Amino acid sequence: MLDLVLPQQCGGCGAPATPWCADCARALAVRPDEPHLVTPRLDPGVPVFALGRYNGPRRRAVVAVKEHGRADLIGPLASALRGGLRRLWEWGIVAPPLTVVPAPTRRWAARRRGGDPVTRMAVAAAGDTPGFAVVPALRTRALVADSVGLSTAGRQRNIAGRVRLIRPVAGDLLLVDDIVTTGATATESVRVLRAAGASVVAILTIAAA
After folding, report:
1. What is the mean predicted confidence (pLDDT) over 3-7?
2. Confidence (pLDDT) at 141
3. C-alpha to C-alpha distance for 132 and 46, rounded to whole angstroms
4. Which PANTHER family match (predicted)?
5. Would you call the peptide bond into 117 cis, given omega within 30 degrees of 0 as the criterion?
6. Cβ 56 vs Cβ 21: under 8 Å
7. Does domain 29-208 fall into CATH 3.30.230?
8. pLDDT of 140 above 60
9. Are 205 and 189 in contact (CB under 8 A)?
10. Which tens digit of pLDDT belongs to each residue from 162-204?
11. Per-chain mean pLDDT for the chain
12. By 3-state DSSP, what share of the chain in percent is helix, strand and coil, each rounded to 5?
């Protein structure tokens, strides 16, 4: 009866009667060779890893969370992020003690979405792992515009000088985000974290556009 009144649809493919189907779960499963090293157009100066391309169920799930309030999809995306984090640990790229820092978001966007989805994914992915602490240490300043449709240079100008540190950080850090496109936000975030004395060892994202 509830499905008739509020029909569920898979957040990855639109299949009925389920929020997240088995096929989409398999599409996001972290394979033995993942995450892959990617090269954004702007080099943040640290290795950037992505769990997959920004298409298919991965893209639709991210959009559903950010633009349509599908908080029920935080879990599947966080599961993929957890798999990527543990793979980087197995490969020796990260190791505890490690601080996981979500990429910054605009305050009004976070309010509109009922909280920052990247932070929620990070907490679900790493918050219960001994030696791993999630610290939302970054925030964007006012006047940062939506970057959709901006060129690489435009994204760089849009974010330059507009990421600020809101909590102290130290030691080894892993920056996490849902998508890496040009690398502008990642580059500015790494600059701010390094200026605070932290060591950013890598960046991990759910998707690369």
Report:
1. 48
2. 78
3. 19
4. DNA UTILIZATION PROTEIN YHGH
5. no
6. no
7. no
8. yes
9. no
10. 899 999 999 999 999 999 999 999 999 999 999 999 999 999 9
11. 90
12. 40, 20, 40
> Quick one: which H or E segment has residue 38?
strand 36-38
pLDDT in tens, 49-62: 999 999 999 999 99
Structure tokens at 137: 């240490």
Is there a contact between 180 and 48 (Cβ–Cβ < 8 Å)? yes
Residue type for position 59? R
Per-residue confidence at 107, pLDDT binned at 50, 70, 90? low
- The DSSP 8-state label assigned to residue 117 in this structure reads H
Cα–Cα separations (whole angstroms), residue 186 to 8, 76, 176, 177: 35, 23, 9, 9
Q: Assess contact for 165 and 175: CB atoms under 8 A.
A: no
Token pair 């920052």 in the structure block, residue: 116
Q: Nearest Cα to 183, choosing from 65, 47, 91?
A: 47
| pTM greater than 0.85 | yes
Q: Taking phi first (over 0 means left), then psi (-120 to 50 degrees means alpha), and beta for anything else, what does residue 115 get?
A: left
Residue 145 tokens, joined: 């515009």
Tokens of 176: 């996490």
User: Could you identify the residue written with the tokens 């993942």?
Assistant: 34
